[in-house]
């Protein structure tokens, strides 16, 4: 191409306007409903709940398994270490397969599988080409009924884990999370999201075998299959493949959590820190509560997405932070609000002041009509988009099953959101977002921020 | 136990092509409509036929900088309005700059289709290019470069650091993120010239996917894009250059890297002329480093412990078929201080020689291609990824269908083709970049 000379091409100013002038933004059209999927939901004689959903599109199947993994014994601090090593080594070999042959068999059907654990549940997530479902289920059953925890694999994995934990423990976000959990939940098992290095080093194959026998059980667990499958056939295939997984007992539920009350924040000193972590939390309600849809919208308008008051204030207006958010954390019994931001050390107290200001404003100056409508459109649209993949749907259904909800809840939720009135949102904001309801932690260099935080008040400074 | 190979070849792709429609508007804009009525979600993407290989000398990083400017408002939309309208509809948006194209896209609830088309059309017709936004976005891009390149270990390794070793001409060799001095001296008039030259409607592809009626969508596309005036479409230059006639060597120091690393770069076959050969290289990359049992992973990580991490892939940016010829096959490895880079290179050469002589085991190859197929299907299950794959295949290779056919094409790669690809990665025609950790002098 020969570059045109300045004379015969347009200036930036000319490019930015047309003869017709600015145009009107087209309105949104009515949003079509999500069709009800072809679905089976049943409890097998072993006690395992199986949910299978037909979602064609690509010739794949997604699998999620969720085993409540707390209960008896979980109060022992060492339990978190056993659980973590178990999740990291459960795929290291079975009575029928080595680590490599587990991986080879999965690869043969385009499959992958992984396990993870947190204080609430042990989870498996995997996928395969749809016609490889029998192999995927066979590998899963093999692991659930016959994991052997070979000594050399356990040793290697313990070392790897210890290294990873050491690295992670130095991360400011992890320090803040640990401090918040202890501050709001004391010594409850929910606080042990990451085990101690010394505990990990002490885990033996016998610990793992014993814990697997007692805790990896079908009764109370849920298996979700989503993909290019026939739900009835898939349930039958799961029943046949998993018949050998019939360990007695009931999966262990997380003990109920201490109630959250408003209290002084805690300043956690991190000498030399260039950035501070602010984490505020308050009691909220579960998805089944009639106030939930209004709370969801009130929280979005306050700080639940980019176009919210909290983000526009802290980020766009003040430039204190790259990121600020307010979200709901769910547990088997209810939920908690979590308001968080990371900011430069020198604006720690000003950022906390603005967070409290926006919480107070949320409670006494309810969202305007346009703020509410924007939050409503975002809530309905983002739910829709998150469920638009086999993997997204499978993960959502497994999570909802953990709190006793099913796909019907997801399908009906947009209607609930549409029905929420401005008065209900205002009431939810007063009830849940009032600053006096919050507790939390600030992780910061005390030498640089203690004085101004003390001046603000409502925070325990060491 | 032995598993019956139930999935010898992935299922044939459904033929969504049957329902697809192509249109060309009067102003030259190519339109691809790919309806999928399974869920009430839609996607809109604009792929423009200009990437960082086309930016002028002295203006490194300009294609990417310009991408940022396109989010800063247009005749009908003030600054930030784009973000608000997309998020306020429940949607997501983004853009990205590649070697040969730049894309802009949104995923939205189906009821917001017309709004999505309006937002894309408005900036393709009349973007607001202002001095204030340019200065502001130069700062933002510099911050992005600091975050992704300058202040992190292995930043720009190998995608920025390897091309100047493997290639000799400016388009292929220069830094697509840009030098700070080039970015800082960019002017509003540069932006105007770039837009007028490359963002002509005839130089772009509009892709619309998801839950819509094709006739309705075609009418909406015409309504919003139809009156963008036609402008001359730039002739697309060839970026071809001779292959290296030896092993080209460079070394760099990375102040943040904890361990030494190396990158090998080779030229790939031209996908337009030899698609089969190109894909054999992609499969070879997987055989070498994807999964526990991969050749180089077994040999170098679990076997002699020469490296802590090794990765091989077709495509400079890590994905195959993302660019026209010439494109790069890379092998990167991170290794302990005690290991000489040459030891790693020799081990790679030995494994390639073995594969060139004997080829992969058919069962080994089948496992790799099955995982490839399944990874592609999963990726395309996300409407956003499927849309971007269709749009880039249509723009870069002239055939959106290539994206549907890829799983089957990958499955059809033979052990012989892989052996040929391994033989083509010759020590006497490549780049070797050695990265050493340490404070910069």
From TrEMBL, chain A:
Q: Where is this region: Disordered?
A: 1-41
- Quote the biased-composition stretches of kind Basic and acidic residues, using this chain's numbering: 7-22
Pfam families referenced in this protein's UniProt entry, alphabetically: Peptidase_M16, Peptidase_M16_C
Provide the Peptidase M16 C-terminal domain boundaries: 202-377
InterPro entries named in the record = Metalloenz_LuxS/M16, MPP/UQCRC_Complex, Pept_M16_N, Peptidase_M16_C
Superkingdom is: Bacteria
Pro residues: which segments have biased composition?
24-35
Domain annotation Peptidase M16 N-terminal: ranges? 50-193
Name of the protein in its database record: Pitrilysin family protein
């Amino acid at each position: 191409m020969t570059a045109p000379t300045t004379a015969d091409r347009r200036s930036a100013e000319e490019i930015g306007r047309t003869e017709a002038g600015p145009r009107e933004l087209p309105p949104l059209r009515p949003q079509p409903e999500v069709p009800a999927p072809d679905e089976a939901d049943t409890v097998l004689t072993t006690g395992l709940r199986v949910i299978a959903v037909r979602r064609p599109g690509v010739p794949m199947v997604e699998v999620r398994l969720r085993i409540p993994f707390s209960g008896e014994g979980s109060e022992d601090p060492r339990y978190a270490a056993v659980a973590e090593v178990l999740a990291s080594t459960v795929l290291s070999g079975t009575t029928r397969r080595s680590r490599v042959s587990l991986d080879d068999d999965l690869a043969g059907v385009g499959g992958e599988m992984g396990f993870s654990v947190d204080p609430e549940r042990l989870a498996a997530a995997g996928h395969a080409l749809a016609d490889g479902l029998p192999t995927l289920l066979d590998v899963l059953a093999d692991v659930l009924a016959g994991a052997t925890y070979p000594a050399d694999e356990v040793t290697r994995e313990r070392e790897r884990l210890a290294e990873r934990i050491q690295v992670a423990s130095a991360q400011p976000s992890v320090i803040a999370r640990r401090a918040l959990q202890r501050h709001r939940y004391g010594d409850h098992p929910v606080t042990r999201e990451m085990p101690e290095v010394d505990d990990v080093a002490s885990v033996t194959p016998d610990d793992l075998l014993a814990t697997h026998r007692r805790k990896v059980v079908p009764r109370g667990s849920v298996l979700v299959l989503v993909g290019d499958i026939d739900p009835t056939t898939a349930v039958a295939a799961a029943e046949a493949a998993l018949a050998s997984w019939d360990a007695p007992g009931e999966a262990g539920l997380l003990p109920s959590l201490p109630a959250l009350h408003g209290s002084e924040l805690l300043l956690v000193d991190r000498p030399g820190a260039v950035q501070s972590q602010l984490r505020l939390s308050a009691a909220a309600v579960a998805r089944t509560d009639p106030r939930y849809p209004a709370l969801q919208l009130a929280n979005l308008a306050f700080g639940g997405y980019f176009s919210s008051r909290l983000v526009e204030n802290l980020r766009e207006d003040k430039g204190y932070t790259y990121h600020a958010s307010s979200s709901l954390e769910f547990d088997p019994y209810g939920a908690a609000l979590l308001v968080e931001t990371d900011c430069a050390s020198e604006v720690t107290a000003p950022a906390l002041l603005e967070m409290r200001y926006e919480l107070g404003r949320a409670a006494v100056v309810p969202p305007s009509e346009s703020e509410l409508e924007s939050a409503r459109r975002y809530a309905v649209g983002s739910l829709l988009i998150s469920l638009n993949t086999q993997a997204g749907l499978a993960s959502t259904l497994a999570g909802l099953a953990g709190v006793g909800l099913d796909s019907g809840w997801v399908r009906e939720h947009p209607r609930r959101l549409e029905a929420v009135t401005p008065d209900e949102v205002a009431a939810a904001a007063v009830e849940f977002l009032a600053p006096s309801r919050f507790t939390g932690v600030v992780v910061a260099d005390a030498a640089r921020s203690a004085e101004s935080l003390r001046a603000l008040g409502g925070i325990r400074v060491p | 136990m032995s598993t019956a190979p139930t999935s010898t070849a992935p299922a044939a792709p459904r033929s969504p092509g049957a329902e697809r429609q192509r249109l060309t508007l009067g102003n030259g804009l190519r339109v691809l409509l790919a309806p999928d009525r399974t869920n009430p979600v839609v996607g809109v993407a604009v792929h423009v036929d200009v990437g960082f290989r086309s930016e002028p000398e002295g203006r490194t990083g300009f294609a990417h900088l310009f991408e940022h400017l396109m989010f800063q408002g247009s005749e009908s939309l003030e600054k930030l309005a784009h973000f608000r309208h997309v998020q306020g509809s429940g949607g997501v948006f983004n853009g990205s700059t590649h070697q040969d194209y730049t894309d802009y896209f949104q995923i939205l609830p189906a009821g917001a289709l017309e709004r999505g088309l309006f937002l894309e059309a408005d900036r393709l017709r009349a973007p607001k290019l202002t001095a204030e936004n340019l200065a502001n976005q130069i700062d933002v891009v510099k911050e992005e470069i600091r975050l992704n390149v300058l202040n992190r270990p292995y930043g720009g390794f190998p995608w920025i650091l390897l091309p100047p070793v493997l290639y000799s001409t400016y388009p292929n060799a220069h830094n697509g993120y840009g030098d700070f001095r080039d970015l800082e001296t960019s002017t509003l008039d540069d932006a105007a010239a770039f837009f007028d030259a490359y963002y002509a409607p005839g130089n772009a592809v509009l892709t619309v996917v998801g839950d819509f009626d094709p006739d309705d969508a075609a009418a909406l596309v015409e309504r919003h894009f139809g009156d963008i005036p036609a402008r001359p479409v730039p002739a697309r230059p060839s970026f071809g250059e001779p292959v290296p006639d030896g092993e080209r060597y460079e070394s760099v120091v990375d102040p943040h890297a904890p361990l030494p690393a190396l990158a090998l770069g080779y030229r790939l076959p031209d996908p337009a002329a030899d698609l089969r050969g190109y894909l054999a290289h992609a499969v070879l990359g997987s055989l070498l480093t994807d999964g526990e049992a991969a050749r180089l992973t077994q040999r170098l990580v679990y076997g002699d412990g020469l490296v802590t991490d090794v990765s091989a892939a077709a495509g400079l940016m890590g994905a195959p078929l993302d660019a026209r010829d010439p494109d790069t096959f890379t092998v990167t490895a991170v290794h302990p201080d005690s290991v000489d880079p040459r030891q790693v290179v020799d081990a790679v050469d030995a494994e390639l020689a073995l594969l060139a002589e004997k080829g992969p085991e058919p069962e080994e190859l089948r496992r790799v291609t099955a995982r490839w197929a399944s990874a592609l299907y999963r990726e395309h299950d996300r409407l956003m990824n499927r849309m971007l794959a269709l749009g880039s295949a249509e723009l870069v290779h002239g055939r959106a269908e290539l994206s549907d056919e890829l799983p089957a094409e990958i499955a059809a790669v033979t052990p012989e083709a892989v052996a040929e690809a391994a033989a083509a990665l010759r020590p006497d025609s490549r780049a070797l970049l050695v990265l050493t950790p340490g404070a910069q002098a």
